[in-house]
Amino acid sequence: MLNFRKKLILSGFIGNLLDAYDIAIFGYMTFYIASYFFISSDPLMSLFKTFSIFAISYIVRPIGGIFFGFVADYMGRKKAFVASLLVMGTSTTLIGLLPGYKQLGTLAIGLLLLMRMLQSFGAGGEYTNSIVFLYEHAKASESTFITSFAGLGINTGNLIASSVGGVLAMLMQNHVIGQWGWRIPFLLAGVGMILGLWVRHSLPETLVFITQHREHWSMTLKQFCSKMRLDAKAHRSNYISLVSLIWLGTASTYLLYFYFPLHLSTIRHIVYAKSLTINTCSIALLVMLIPCFGYLSDKWGRKRFIIFATIGYLIFAFPYYLALSYGNLLVIWIVQLGSAVLSAMFYSIAPSIIANSAPPAIRCTMTSLVYGLSSSVFGATAPLIALGLIKLTGFAIAPAFYLMLSAACCLFCLLRVKPSTDEIRVEDLKLQSG
């Protein structure tokens, strides 16, 4: 039998695993989905259209974040925890059952977009609500370590998605995957959803919500919205800093892992299966390092780790894309594994900062809103921006500049933190005036 602590960790881990798997598998299968739903003589244009579906669907992510965040703040963290997983898992599974363009024409594209929008709606409340759930159950001395399992779940989901994509590419010919093999990873999401629902159903509500329960029910919807507006106004620079943190976190995920195999296959014409193998190994290293950095940051302080990782991104972005675009296979292996170390530092610490970014009465709604908007604007559009920059400039290394911009903005905010404590909490992430 699992004790409460293990169930708590597993509940946050598995939900975020499914969240990331659902998104990542769409990214890794884009190569095949593009030819199934978009018929074009230009493969790059088919990819561009598929990534447009991916980006457009993110419009509803903030809406899902607000909805499930409100449910979590008003009705309970657990109810939102279960509902978001159900919506997310069901829509992902249904993608695996969709007919293609040859069967339904443009209607097939519409159904794909609808399923992706439902997927994003459910995912909007998953990550932030789960890290709040973990944070509120965790002891103060291990809050970063416990919440790091949300980041671990996300990257394990990426790892499984990359592994499944790699195995399919090795066992099946490209035309077979393009015909029906691409469906298998989406149908597997249903298994993860069932397991996640079983674990989450057995967990109790957080004490923070229970103690705040009277305040929740005494507020009208108008008062609740007013409280959010006043908090946002009072801590404006605080939330701007949080946006920069989320921007770098989501942009690095999409550019270093989701976009990586596509860059190698379309720009360097490296076999897709080989690209996914390199990607899978780098994510495996990332998964192993995340809880280690989470544990160390609780002991030594989060500030030094997250600033070091941010500086690392800023310096590393240009040589990374230089290696991907012109380096040999050994150099590509080295830079991709190196990216995993920087990412592990960043992803292990970010969840605890996000979870502590708002007062308990509006915590889930505010964090979901900020995270949903930031990840939609800066994260989901990253592969589209990467392809657009390459097409616009003609330079294969152009995506590096977008990653460098996000790192520079995040570093600016982090370096303006008041030096009163080595612990970075979002209430300390305020730009100093003057």
Could you give a short description of this structure?
The protein has 434 residues and is mostly helical. The chain is built from 21 helices and no strands.
Overview of the molecule:
The chain has 434 residues and is mainly α. It has a single domain (4-428), classed as MFS general substrate transporter like domains (Growth Hormone, Chain: A, Up-down Bundle), CATH 1.20.1250. The protein is 81% helix and 0% strand. It has 21 helices and no strands. The termini are far apart. Residues 418-434 have low confidence and may be disordered.
Observed structural traits:
Growth Hormone, Chain: A; disordered C terminus
Q: Layout of helices and strands, plus pairs?
A:
Elements: H1 4-28, H2 30-37, H3 43-56, H4 61-74, H5 77-95, H6 101-104, H7 106-123, H8 126-137, H9 143-171, H10 174-181, H11 183-201, H12 207-218, H13 221-234, H14 236-258, H15 260-266, H16 272-300, H17 302-326, H18 329-355, H19 363-379, H20 382-393, H21 399-415
Helix pairs in contact: 1-5, 1-8, 1-9, 1-11, 2-3, 2-10, 4-5, 4-7, 4-19, 5-7, 5-8, 5-11, 8-9, 8-18, 8-19, 9-16, 9-18, 14-18, 14-19, 14-21, 15-16, 16-17, 16-18, 17-18, 17-21
